[in-house]
Structures are given as structure tokens and as C-alpha cells.
Design goal:
With 356 residues, this protein is of the alpha/beta class. It is 35% helix and 19% strand. It has an 8-stranded mixed β-sheet. It has a 6-stranded parallel β-sheet with strand order 11-10-9-12-13-14, sandwiched between helices.
Length: 356
């Protein structure tokens, strides 16, 4: 079977995140199940135009617009049995307009929630309108989504429930595993430093706690447009905060496992993959009760869901006092999710088998 997967980024893109991790982890496993995976994506300018990435035949086209305009050409060139339109960046690929082959739409999350503050009002309205057009663009197609929240969003957009299948992502339980906690309490924020993820709240939470917890440290990983502002905000303050930028997965897994609590402030997520990776590492999370995140935290088990920034302090202190229990429960929660299980569900879908 030949699969053509359209997505805006691949795992080697400098801005690759959770969505690209899913494509990579699922794609490379599908190739081992005799699925011929072809990924068409956007070249940021510093990558090869074609590359075989762990079995995934990756075609990179320079420019977002050019990549979208190449859909018809790539469908004809690859002649796939199944096409996947990955909607991580809202703008549809519309491949169903150019073929009678099976087209699956991979819907991550509703972008309308995360647009304020990221793009201008005019562009936000256009993208919101485009999302409302999904039921017309993909009238009879199957939609795959990761969370209950995203499934409900699709239904509200007008997609029939019977056309929606949930396939949650997995986590690398070997790479992300519990380790010895650092002696002095360390809080962690890891993820994109963009407005809708509200990383500035990590500093606010640190300020609430640093006089109560001796030698408290905050580690912030990831890149984004807010990085310089965050650094500037604490420049004149005697805070024990490290900004590590974007780091490789091996280093990241070590930092997560040695941290005591993971902090998450996003307005919305398709799925809290970073929270799942944190849980696998035996590190509980405290996060806002928002779409997507509610699927990855079980209250008072692998962390807490809160309603207001003022609630973070008490929940963090509670976790610290009961750290051993939360370490055990966090790992137990994560063990329900593996990339092998996720890839198997995708394989059954591609082969028209029933997904349990």
C-alpha cells in the first residue's frame, strides 16, 4: 500500500513539535508494516528537497503556497492508495478535489482558540472561516483526531460523528522514564514560547514560590517569539531560572525526569503530548483546564487541572509533599499510551479494519 501524507512540517523542521513527532513515530512504524509512506511538506530553506527519513520518503517544497499548489502534481506523481491531509496548520490541502482515492483528514485542534495575539484580527477571521468550511471541503471524508475535545469541535463544525475516529498519540516509554529527582526542587516549563502557550506564567508561578522553597529553580526549554522578552523580564532580578532553548530529546528526557513538577499554561492543545512525556518520566503536571489538556491529566493522579493562575501554588506544594505517589501514578498513566499502539490503529484504519 502506498500512502501520501501532506503536512506543513516534518520532524527535521526547526519548528517541529508534537504534531511532527506523531507523523514521524507513526510513519516510520508503518513502513515496517509494508506501508510505502510518502510525506510532502514545506522546506524552510535549510533542508534537502528529498530525503528518506527512517523509511519515510520525504519531499520538501519551498514555500507554503507552493506546497499547497503542488498537491495535484504530487497526487499524480505518487499515485497513492490513501492520502492523509494533516491539518496541524489549519489551511486545508484539499487533496480530495484532485482524486477519487481515499482521503483521511487528520484534525489536530481548533485553531480559532489559539489565534488571538498570534496573528492580526483580519487573518484570524480568515482562518476561523476556513475552519468552518471543513465540512464542505471534506464532505464525505473520514476525520482522525486525538482527543475528546477535538472530536467535539469537529461535531460543532458540522462533521458527522460517524465520520470521526479517535487515535491518541503515544509516548516513548524507554526514552522518557522516571529518574532520580534533583536535590533542590526544580520546576519545568517545556514547549513553544508563543503567546497562546502563555510561558510568562511560569515566571509568575516561580515568583509565588521562590521565597517559600529554598533554592527553588525553574528550567525553561523551547524556542519562540517570546524568548527574548522572558529573558528581559528577569534580567535585573536575582532569580534561579535557566533558559535552555530547544534541546535534543535525550537531554530533554533527563531534565524532565529530574524535575519535580511540569508547568503547562496553554490556552488550548490538540493533545497534551508534553504532559504525556512528563508523566512517562515520573513528573506530574499542573495545567489549566483547557481543551486537549483535559485528556492528558487525571486530577490528583498524574497532576492537577486548575481554573486560575492563583491555583498553581497550592497544587505544586501538595505534589512536592506527596512526590513519591505522584511519580508512581504519573508513570502508570503514561503506560496506557505507546507509539506501537498508535501506529497499529493507523494501520488498521488504512487497511479498512475495525479499530477497537
Amino acid at each position: 500500500m502506498r500512502v501520501l501524507w501532506f503536512a506543513h512540517r516534518d520532524i527535521k523542521h526547526p519548528k517541529a513539535g508534537g504534531a511532527e513527532r506523531t507523523i514521524y513515530e507513526v510513519g516510520k512504524r508503518l513502513t515496517k508494516l509494508n506501508i510505502d509512506v510518502h510525506l510532502v511538506t514545506v522546506n524552510p530553506g535549510n533542508l534537502l528537497n528529498y530525503e528518506n527519513v527512517d523509511g519515510i520518503k520525504t519531499y520538501r517544497i519551498k514555500g507554503n503556497i507552493k506546497a499547497h499548489l503542488s498537491v495535484k502534481k504530487m497526487v499524480k506523481k505518487i499515485d497513492p492508495d490513501v492520502i492523509i491531509d494533516d491539518m496541524d496548520h489549519a489551511i486545508p490541502w484539499c487533496s480530495s478535489w484532485f482524486t477519487h482515492k481515499k482521503v483521511i483528514v487528520f484534525f489536530r485542534h481548533l485553531h480559532a482558540r489559539s489565534l488571538p495575539g498570534q496573528v492580526n484580527i483580519f487573518l484570524a477571521k480568515i482562518i476561523t472561516l476556513i475552519e468552518k468550511m471543513y465540512p464542505f471541503i471534506y464532505r464525505n471524508n473520514t476525520f482522525i483526531t486525538e482527543s475528546d475535545t477535538s472530536e467535539n469541535d469537529l461535531i460543532h463544525l458540522g462533521i458527522k460523528r460517524e465520520n470521526i475516529i479517535r487515535i491518541p498519540p503515544g509516548v516513548d516509554l524507554n526514552l522518557f522514564h522516571p529518574g532520580e529527582k534533583i536535590k533542590n526542587i526544580q520546576l519545568l516549563y517545556f514547549g513553544g514560547l508563543r503567546k497562546y502557550k502563555r510561558p510568562e506564567y511560569a515566571i509568575k508561578v516561580y515568583e509565588e514560590l521562590h521565597n517559600e522553597i529554598h533554592n527553588l529553580k525553574l528550567v525553561v526549554t523551547g524556542n519562540g517569539p517570546m524568548l527574548n522578552k522572558l529573558k528581559e523580564d528577569i534580567k535585573s532580578k536575582n532569580y534561579n531560572i535557566d533558559f535552555l532553548g530547544k534541546i535534543n530529546y535525550n537531554k530533554l528526557s533527563k531534565i524532565i525526569s529530574e524535575s519535580w513538577v511540569n508547568l503547562h499554561f496553554s490556552v488550548t492543545e490538540g493533545w497534551g503530548l508534553s504532559i504525556l512525556e512528563s508523566s512517562a518520566s515520573g513528573t506530574p503536571s499542573v495545567a489549566f483546564r483547557v481543551p486537549g489538556v483535559v485528556d492528558t491529566i487525571k486530577n490528583n493522579f498524574n497532576g492537577f487541572l486548575v481554573e486560575d493562575i492563583s491555583d498553581f501554588k497550592d497544587k505544586i506544594l501538595y505534589i512536592i509533599k506527596n512526590e513519591d505517589l505522584f511519580i508512581k501514578n504519573s508513570r502508570k498513566f503514561a503506560e496506557n499510551f505507546t507509539w506501537d499502539k498508535t501506529a497499529e490503529m493507523w494501520y488498521k484504519l488504512l487497511c479498512n479494519e475495525t479499530i477497537q
